[in-house]
């Protein structure tokens, strides 16, 4: 057949005309080429070089038109085929010089060898400007027109019943499309990345809309879900930043909308919140589940309230809500999932419920304005890059419940100056979460490979771990990375070291942990920026501290002391102490400004503890004989409980019972009592 191919080449080059080709030869030549030709060949085109022997017989025929010599000739060549081929048993395609792709025939579009192989015209994707599908074609194959970046118009006939996965993905210039009523399903990613698509109808007859169908369709402002739809995939409108409203036909039995927000019919699941809706929003109390990415890219959302009814808040739920300033999560939430608040640049505060046990990967990454975060006592796991690059955080307290802190958890939080650990040293598991995430999703430190992968890479701070906790070895501390100066402390709920609060409390003072504990737990406070650690406790101060420890319960009545006024700052504390037999007066007076000795303070504390039974005697102190008779039980109890241990001097221990009880000593005894 070589002579026949040579003859065809000569004909198409202009050496022969179509009219001189014998009919029998034309039939034989068509039989030789398995790719159907749907248009007549004009007089002037020439074909490319014949296919090499290794090319498949059904590869598309590529046709190149000669340069026209006149406007008339150019007009004649406008419909000249550039390429043609097959895309199904009875379906053919032709691409002309105008960029019009015409698909004709009957039945399904198909590709070989499987449904995700490239379509034959994919090599010409950037030349396609218009698609015309002729009646008789029943489906649009997967990725049929994907990355046809210059496609502006599409004609779909009523014979088409399905639109395949990624069928029109990344058709950036496609502004509108009319889907016929015959279509019943729209595949996943069908219109993903059609950034100019502003108008699209979903006909009544469509039952299934796949995952991510309209992902990143930034020009889409509204859409209506017809009554026929029974299934809507996930991430349907993610990245549709100009979407204002989603409407649902009231007759739909599976979905509904309220104020343009998409829900399931019973309103127990919030599916999608339009990306262009502005202001604050409170999720209805009927909602139990918020879908993944439900609020993603809502750049005008300013605050969100999640009710207690919600038990599942989806991954990436608020990703990229750049104007979101506050978030209140209900008590039903037990997990903050991956990327929940990722890149919420203006988020300043979020209330994490007490029942939350895990914070997922990059949950708060790049929340640069986040100033305070209180981690709940139920928390066990802090995920990879959970708070990465939250530069406004100044302090973080890790509850004793936390067992695992993953790499990069607080990397790049260069504002953190204090880190408080309340329990055993958490483990630092290996980061196995790389798969499936882009560099931007994984965070700057994690993606770039910078740092050691330690939780506090890039942080310069003072780290506090529990005093006497043997799990905090030197090697264990080093694994947390950063430039951390480590110190011990007594766990409380510290927000700031007392050495930075009170000018008269040095960071290396023997009593600093005790003052920290008393301050953190609202037992004692200072005045004018000073704690006055060497000042002597007064009777009013003592009863006030014990009243504070009790939680300041409500009291009624008036104190029975002539020297206590209802306007005195310690009035309620004195009344409470009197009613609970913690303190008594003398001769009808309380003497609130009387200075308290060490044995008197022990007696106050013994009374507060309920005057428990005491056995044994005071031993081991050089000055036991100087203890007042009435104070012996109290001091014996306090010594046995470790609340009072004595003062060393000259190789001996002294109780110093008549010595004045300083505020520093009082803080130490109160801390020991509360933690014994």
Question: Can you put this structure into words, describing what you see?
Answer:
With 676 residues, the protein is an alpha/beta fold. The protein is built from 13 helices and 35 strands. The strands form 9 sheets. The chain has a 7-stranded mixed β-sheet. A 5-stranded parallel β-sheet has the order 7-9-11-13-15, with no helix packed on it. Strand 17 and strand 18 form a beta hairpin. It is elongated, with a radius of gyration of 39 Å.
Summarize the structure.
This protein is an alpha/beta fold and 676 residues long. It has 13 helices and 35 strands. The termini are far apart.
Distance between the termini: 102 Å
Shape by Cα distribution? elongated
Outline the biggest β-sheet.
7 strands, mixed
Overall mean pLDDT stands at 85
Helix tally? 13
Question: What key phrases describe this protein's structure?
Answer:
676 residues, alpha/beta, seven-stranded mixed β-sheet, five-stranded parallel β-sheet, 13 helices, 35 strands, 16% helix, elongated, disordered N terminus
